[in-house]
Design a protein that fits this description.
The chain is an all-alpha fold. The structure holds zinc ion. Zinc ion binds next to loops.
Length: about 400
């Protein structure tokens, strides 16, 4: 039987057990177990029935049990798609990051365990297929290897030999190779063309027509280019291999994106990228859901998020809505806040039959699993490991404040 088919079958057979509440000894983490939950945890389950039947808040049409089921179905969908060889080849590093962050951050211990187990299993696979950098790897390939290695390391599967290869290869590229601009010497640029809509060709910075087909190119927004750079620098800092710039160098340019504008009834074409830029400030500062942030750290960003969450609901954009919700939770909003309640009602009413969120007819698997990841993140509560960014991040953020006063 073809390996991919075999794996898909394994998923169907094994996934229900992954989500059982059976306690897993630490020694067995990562092993996919088929045994059913022992009787004791079944009666525990029954005891929890009352809590699960409780409405999420007085008057809510959904219960704690609905939320619990929804996040499990969402995570199973993500894992199912990650087991597909083509999907994993394309987005393996991102899938690892998803399982790692859910496994580290949410307060639902069962969900954390399940995500971690999925992550460890996929990280083993990723390590087997990423033993060394390809000959003549591009900056983008080096970045992707750093992303995957960092996530696999975080899941406990280190490969220091590969890390040295990545370090050596990274040192040969410039900031512009990695980030498309040099944060040390210029603000986020507005002359980076998006890939050609017609033939997907990538074109040099400054090009206005496609080198392959001659059609006019659309430019990427400054916010879009900037937050890509922020994520890359963040992963480089985490991993300990500089990918073009330090995190602080990129973060320092945040004020160039202010003041933030809303959707303005469609008049602001940069709205969408502004949302993702702001949410990724939150994620990189709080290590994707691991630490809470004081509202006083980023008042402009918090105000933007609060003011615009309902736009994502109006647009029926589950991915964007998820970004708003877990970012707002980082600033201390909870199920008691109207914005969060509106988002939860929306997501719980709109989950697809296969457990995903978003457009089921979408062909790019990234646009299927990413909204689903965001749905899981948005419906989750978080077990904060600490208040505020780590000291190094706090220093980077102080430099942003100083830059604003200049
Ligand atoms: Zn073209």
């Amino acid at each position: 039987m073809h390996a991919k088919v075999l794996r898909s079958l394994l998923t169907l057979i094994l996934l229900p057990s992954l989500c059982a509440v059976a306690p897993v000894s630490t020694g067995a983490v990562g092993a996919i177990r088929t045994n059913a939950a022992p009787t004791s945890s079944r009666s525990l389950e029954a005891g929890r029935g009352a809590e699960r039947a409780r409405p999420l808040w007085p008057g809510s049409r959904f219960t704690e049990g609905d939320r619990r089921r929804a996040v499990r179905r969402g995570l199973r969908f993500i894992y199912r798609t990650a087991l597909d060889e083509n999907n994993f080849e394309q987005y393996g590093s991102d899938y690892l990051w998803c399982f790692y962050t859910v496994g580290e951050s949410v307060s639902d211990a069962g969900l954390r365990r399940t995500a971690r187990r999925m992550g460890v299993e996929r990280a083993r696979r990723w390590r087997r297929t990423h033993r060394s950098l390809p000959e003549g790897a591009t900056a983008q390939e080096v970045s992707d290897f750093a992303f995957g290695s960092d996530a696999a390391d975080s899941l406990g599967l280190r490969d220091d030999k590969l890390k040295e290869q990545i370090r050596l290869a990274a040192s040969r590229f410039t900031a512009r190779d990695f980030l498309l601009f040099d944060p040390a010497s210029e603000p986020p640029p507005s002359d980076v063309p998006d890939e050609c809509e017609f033939d997907k060709a990538r074109n040099e910075r400054g090009a206005t027509t496609c080198r392959r087909c001659g059609r006019p190119l659309k430019m990427r927004t400054r916010a879009d280019v900037w937050y890509d750079a922020l994520i890359t620098a963040y992963v480089g800092d985490r991993f300990g291999v500089r990918l073009g710039a330090d995190y602080g160098e990129v973060l320092k340019l945040l004020p160039t994106l202010r003041p933030y504008r809303g959707h303005e009834g469609g008049a602001n074409a940069e709205f969408y990228d502004t949302v993702y830029a702001v949410t990724h400030v939150v994620y990189t500062l709080n290590d994707y859901g691991q630490r809470s942030l004081s509202p006083s750290l980023l008042p402009d960003e918090l105000e933007f998020l609060r003011a615009n969450l309902r736009e994502a609901i109006a647009q029926g954009d589950a991915d964007m809505l998820g970004e708003f919700m877990d970012s707002l939770r980082a600033f201390g909003l909870t199920d008691r806040d109207d914005e969060i309640r509106a988002g939860m009602e929306y997501l719980l009413a709109r989950q697809n039959a296969d457990g995903s969120w978003g457009d089921v007819s979408e062909r790019d698997i990234y646009l299927r699993y990413h909204p689903t990841w965001n749905g899981v993140a948005a419906l989750s509560n978080y077990a904060w490991r600490g208040d505020g960014p780590t000291p190094a991040k706090m220093r980077a953020l102080s430099a942003v404040g100083a830059a604003r006063k200049d």
